[in-house]
Design a protein that fits this description.
single chain; alpha/beta; DNA/RNA_pol_sf; extended; Retrovirus_Pol_polyprotein; HIV Type 1 Reverse Transcriptase, Chain A, domain 1; Reverse transcriptase domain-containing protein; Rev_trsase/Diguanyl_cyclase
């Protein structure tokens, strides 16, 4: 390619772009143009948010959104024994914030107290960039190894960029509490119980 020899992948696609970044990086002349030339990007968010709020008010309502199309069903490997772990101590400095977040999850019907469970995982608390607290279940204690693995092949970056060819409008969607919006089957809820200083709480 222009006197430069290199090895890489070439993809046959219905789009104009036939070579990926690895080929472009191998050629100094093409890399120069890639670094110097950019397409014009216009940000046209002014006024659109208010229009969307009026058109789709249910999307912007306060509270937790929920995926109602499908339920998540966690399938176990054969001959798996339930793993019950004790709760971990919460640092006194973080106790108030942890209690507040657990209460918030209970109020949103994400978790609810139970008196008994065969499965239980301790929690891990992570401070988010906005200063709020995220409570995560540490399923590495047993449940992760017990679940059947369903591996989905992720698309190559080159394929993703090729699919954007010809696009004129792009958007970014940030879902609040995205993982909490997925509904679990009743049987799966029994497997994802968290053990906290306030007791057992299934998700």
């Amino acid at each position: 390619m222009k006197g430069v020899e290199a090895e890489g992948y070439a993809y046959v696609t219905p789009y104009n772009s036939l070579i990926g970044l690895e080929w472009i990086r191998a050629n100094e002349e093409m890399r120069y143009h890639l670094e110097m030339m950019t397409a014009e990007v216009k940000v046209t968010s002014a006024g659109i948010e208010e229009e969307l709020r009026k058109t789709y008010p249910e999307v912007f309502e306060e509270g937790l959104g929920r995926c109602i199309k499908e339920e998540v069903d966690l399938q176990l490997n054969q001959n798996v024994r339930p793993v019950f772990c004790n709760s971990r101590p919460v640092p006194h400095a973080a106790l108030e914030a942890v209690n507040a977040e657990l209460d918030r999850l209970v109020q949103m019907d994400v978790i609810a107290p139970v008196s008994h469970s065969e499965w239980a995982a301790p929690i891990v608390c992570v401070k988010k960039q906005n200063g709020k607290l995220r409570i995560c279940a540490d399923f590495s204690t047993g449940l992760n190894r017990a679940l059947q693995s369903f591996d989905y092949p992720l698309p190559m970056p080159e394929d993703i960029f090729a699919s954007l060819n010809g696009g004129t409008i792009f958007s970014q969607i940030d879902l609040s509490d995205a993982y909490l919006q997925l509904e679990l089957s009743e049987e799966s809820k029994r497997k994802v119980v968290i053990n906290t200083h306030k007791g057992l709480l299934p998700q």
